[in-house]
Design goal:
There is one protein chain. Strands 1-2-11-10-9-8-7-6-3-4-5 form an eleven-stranded mixed beta sheet. Strands 12, 13, 14, 15, 16 and 17 form a six-stranded antiparallel beta sheet that branches. The chain is built from eleven helices and 17 strands. Helix 3 runs parallel beside helix 4 and helix 6 runs parallel beside helix 8. The relative contact order is 0.12. Helices cover 36% and strands 22% of the residues.
């Protein structure tokens, strides 16, 4: 039967190994290129990610050591290799998979997403030899009569020549039930293990396109698309009775409330400085002071306000002095002049995205 998981998602039979690690925040997201043979109208990538760029989580990769550092910071137990289509830069992708396996061992689980357009037997053999554990195919179900779709479907058959987990991964797009059923049966007949279905969401880059096509959000507070979740559940119910595949319906809530939060919590343990508090959401909460001359402010806080120097950190890159929240609260009441105090919450990520700022007093 279709069951609800503890992660706000839905499943039939066993979750793929890649998903098991992902929901616990244990998967590094390794974006090896934004280049892709397709241009799907629902692709959520931002414009700057549609270039030939590499990211490990939020960190731009300038050297291979950036990948190892990010995985270590996260204490990752695996990686999800994505894009674009990682096969569009096959040699780079192969190099990174080998790098992760060499540094973290054979048990470091790596799964990869691909359209299948470039999944020739020769290319798949390179991925397999590099140590790839799981491959997920996302053919263009919207254009089943196109030449590219026929290539994708034919190439998928090559994957079953290798001893790894093979499955599919598709968005749940209202109006596409027949195509989704066809794909599930196709996978099942080939001997695939699973089909992952993702609740469709608006992104900044797809909002206008999806609205123009008649899609609507679930609510004013949600980026999820109306009808997508229900369609996904309908497919799972059908698939349980008509195929032997495992299914996982990955919801918008899972991505935001579970996967991201669990990853942030893992990273926060490594990133948090002594004066920072780790919140339930995995963000870092602390106080800051802003002033034109940071050296002058630091000297004043240590010598005049008698704040212990070990409680203060001068962050020149962000133009502020950081400190424990309670110290900022006390100083905001006591210090007069142009100094501004705030409580901030930030992601413990490479970019340190600020998610909240509270002025004091």
């Amino acid at each position: 039967m279709v069951r609800e998981t503890p992660y706000f998602s839905y499943a039939v039979r066993e979750l793929p190994k890649g998903c098991q690690l992902c929901v616990r925040g244990e998967k590094l997201v390794l974006f090896t290129t934004g280049v892709c043979p397709r241009d799907c109208f629902y692709c959520p990538l931002s414009p700057w990610r549609r270039e030939d760029v590499v990211y490990a989580n939020e960190r731009p990769v300038k050297r291979v050591d950036d990948i190892i550092e990010e995985a270590s910071l996260q204490e990752a137990k695996g990686a999800g290799v994505t894009g674009g289509d990682p096969l569009a830069r096959l040699d780079r992708t192969v190099e990174y998979i080998k790098l992760l396996k060499e540094n973290f061992g054979e048990d470091f689980h790596v799964h990869l997403y691909t359209t299948g357009a470039l999944a020739t037997r020769k290319n798949l053999e390179k991925l397999y030899d590099a140590g790839l554990d799981e491959i997920r195919f996302h053919p263009d179900l919207f254009n089943p009569n196109s030449r590219l779709f026929k290539v994708e479907i034919e190439n998928m058959k090559n994957a079953f020549d290798f001893d790894w987990d093979v499955g599919g991964e598709i968005p749940s797009i209202p109006g596409q039930f027949e195509g989704m059923k066809w794909y599930a049966e196709f996978l099942d007949n080939l001997g695939a293990k699973f089909l992952n279905v993702n609740e469709l969401e608006f992104s900044e880059s797809t909002l206008k396109t999806l609205l123009d096509r008649g899609f609507q959000p679930v609510s004013d507070e949600s980026a999820a698309i109306k009808g997508s979740l229900e369609l996904g559940l309908k497919l799972l119910e059908w698939g349980e009775e008509n195929t032997s595949l495992s299914y996982h319906l990955c919801t918008a809530k899972l991505k935001d409330a579970v996967q991201l939060r669990n990853r942030l919590k893992r990273m926060a343990k490594k990133m948090a400085k002594p004066y920072m508090e780790i919140t339930e959401e995995g963000t870092l909460r602390f106080g800051i002071a802003e002033y034109g001359d940071l050296d002058e402010l630091y000297e004043f806080l240590v010598e005049e306000a008698e704040v212990p120097a070990e409680w203060l950190y001068v962050n020149r890159e962000k133009g502020r002095i950081e400190m424990p929240e309670e110290v900022a609260v006390e100083l905001a009441d006591a210090v007069e002049g142009d100094v501004k105090f705030f409580i901030v919450e930030e992601y413990p990520t490479w970019d340190g995205l600020e998610v909240e700022r509270i002025p004091l007093p």
